[in-house]
Every structure is written in structure tokens, then in C-alpha cells.
Design brief:
Elements (H helix, E strand, L loop, with lengths): L8 H6 L6 H13 L5 E2 L7 E2 L6
Antiparallel strand pairs: 1-2
Length: 55
């Protein structure tokens, strides 16, 4: 199955403050292997927040 990661501009700009490229790649790999991970974002139909409601 193919997944597409869509990032908001603010997410993209803040990401390097929290994760290295390798850590972000590992996170994306985890999400591809476990697409049910994270909380569903209301009103998005299928988008999920991998960091959970508090993240």
C-alpha cells in the first residue's frame, strides 16, 4: 500500500527542532507499518495525528 505524508507549513518549519532526518524517517516508516497509530483528526475523514491528542 502507498501512503502520502502531507505536512502543514508550520509542521515542516518546526520539525527540525524536534526530530533529526533519521528520526523523522523512522517515524514515517513506523506509520507506514502501523497506519492505525495515533489519534484520528476530527473532520479529516482519515488523517491521523501520530503524536496523539497531546502532541
Amino acid at each position: 500500500m502507498h501512503y502520502e505524508f502531507i505536512e502543514s507549513p508550520i509542521f515542516s518549519s518546526l520539525l527540525p527542532d524536534y526530530l533529526t532526518d533519521d528520526e523523522y524517517s523512522a517515524l514515517q516508516g513506523h506509520l507506514c507499518e502501523h497506519p492505525e497509530a495515533g489519534d484520528l483528526i476530527r473532520g479529516s475523514r482519515s488523517a491521523q495525528n501520530p503524536l496523539g491528542a497531546g502532541g
